[in-house]
Write a structure and sequence with these properties.
Largest sheet: 3 strands, antiparallel
Shape: elongated
Radius of gyration: 28 Å
Helix content: 40-55%
Number of strands: 3
Strand order of the largest sheet: 1-2-3
C-alpha cells in the first residue's frame, strides 16, 4: 500500500461516533431542565431580599417616630427612581443616616434594592412601600401587573 492510499483511508474514518452524539444530546437535555430552575431561584431570591430590606427600613422609620414624638423622617414624597444607586438611597433616607437631633444613626448600611424594585414613600400616611418596574416576573404570576400588585401589597 502506498502512502496516498493510507492517508485517504484515515480521512474517511473521521467524524463522531453514535455514542459521542448521544452523550451530547443527553447533556443538552439535562441543561434544558436545570437552567430554568436556577432562573426561578434567582427571582425568588430578589423578592426575598427586597422584602427583607423593606421590613428593616420600616422598623427604623418606626423607631425614628417613637424617638421623635411621632414625627416622620424627611423623605421625598413619591418613588425613588434610582433605588439601586447607594448614593441616591442614602440621600433619600438622609434623616435615618444623620438624624436631625444628633442621635445615633437609624441606618448604618445603605439599603439597596435588587434591580427592578423602587422605594415609594407616601408623605401623607408616612408609609414606605415598594413597587416593581422590571420587565420579568417569577413563575406563579399570570402577568406583570399581578406581580406589581403583590409587591405593592407587602
Amino acid at each position: 500500500m502506498n502512502l496516498a492510499s493510507r492517508v485517504r483511508g484515515k480521512a474517511t474514518k473521521r467524524g463522531f461516533t453514535l455514542i459521542e452524539i448521544l452523550i451530547v444530546v443527553v447533556i443538552l437535555g439535562i441543561l434544558a431542565i436545570v437552567i430554568p430552575q436556577f432562573t426561578s431561584a434567582s427571582q425568588e431570591a430578589s423578592m426575598s431580599s427586597a422584602k427583607s430590606q423593606l421590613q428593616s427600613v420600616r422598623s427604623q422609620i418606626e423607631l425614628f417616630r417613637v424617638k421623635n414624638t411621632g414625627e416622620n423622617p424627611t423623605i421625598t414624597n413619591g418613588a425613588l427612581t434610582n433605588s439601586t444607586d447607594p448614593t441616591a438611597v442614602k440621600a433619600w433616607f438622609a434623616d435615618l443616616f444623620t438624624p436631625p437631633n444628633g442621635e445615633n444613626p437609624y441606618l448604618i448600611s445603605t439599603p439597596v434594592l435588587p434591580s427592578g424594585f423602587q422605594w415609594v414613600w407616601d408623605d401623607s400616611t408616612g408609609f414606605l412601600s415598594l413597587t416593581y418596574v422590571g420587565t420579568t416576573f417569577p413563575e406563579g404570576y399570570a402577568d406583570l401587573t399581578a406581580y406589581v400588585t403583590d409587591v405593592e401589597a407587602w
